[in-house]
Amino acid sequence: MNITEIQDLIKFVAKSGVTEVEIEKKDFKIVIKSEKAGKLEQQYIVQQTMPMAAPVAQQIAAAPVAPAAPVVTESDDSKYIVVKSPMIGTFYRSAGPDKESFVNVGQSIGKGDTVCIIEAMKLFNEIEAEISGKIVKVLVDDASPVEYDQPLFLVDPA
Question: By C-alpha distance, which of 83, 95, 87, 93 is closest to 134?
Fold first, then answer.
């Protein structure tokens, strides 16, 4: 198993919501554990049981989830601020299927307003606006998977 396959496996496990995966073959063992003490903290351990040119054990710890940081884009939309996803998970525009969306295009938002929910590891994380402004565009479909740092909304700060 090469490093690209291991990285793909880690991404798959993070999206699937399982808390632990263990794969053991004759020449290596991989253990992927997630969700520790109620916080989103992931630990990846790769062990090779046969001597090879690569190190015997490799550990990678993911950093804790940081709040969504707005970033100014550099395209035609340069006057808009992009609100990005602070984590990997599933994007939801509302608190439930029968509930109204947190924000809609044309709606004004204030700093601290909830703009969406991202579900990760069966935890529903409310994402709050870091800036005030007007929603110009929603860049993600409801109930879609999102990656870390993926653009979610365009906001006009004017």
Answer: 83
